[in-house]
Write a structure and sequence with these properties.
By secondary structure, the protein is mainly β. The two termini are about 25 Å apart. The chain is built from two helices and seven strands, in the order βαβαβββββ.
């Protein structure tokens, strides 16, 4: 699978400031893994189930968010939250040598269901 990471509208960067605003936290309260319904079915994952996303750099666990707006071979995670659902644990920490901006955050991953 291909993991892409990015932003959600209610949070900004690491969320250190936006997570202090109740209205923004209500709109985007925590990390998630966006999955296509076919992929979710293959995994046996339902909406809200914990899903582990594993790359050669690490492992992150977040609730499944099932949507048809993503490709069946791709998953998306926002990078605003620390802790167990931290998407940047999975990606390459490389920086552009001139601007020092992080590289585009995409990498190969495998998914695992998490039984609680």
């Amino acid at each position: 699978m291909l993991l892409t990471t990015g932003r959600v509208v209610a949070q900004y960067q690491s969320g250190a400031q936006t997570r202090r605003v109740d209205e923004l936290n209500a709109a985007a309260p925590g990390p998630f893994v966006e999955l296509h319904p076919r992929l979710a079915e293959r995994l046996g994952a339902a909406e809200g189930d914990p899903v582990a996303v594993v790359s050669r750099r690490g492992r992150a666990v977040a609730p499944a968010r099932i949507t048809r707006t993503i490709r069946p071979d791709t998953v998306f995670m926002p990078f605003h939250w620390p802790g167990e659902g931290r998407a940047n644990t999975l990606t390459n920490p490389a920086l552009d040598p001139t601007s020092r901006m992080p590289e585009f955050k995409a990498c190969a991953v495998r998914l695992e269901t998490v039984r609680t």
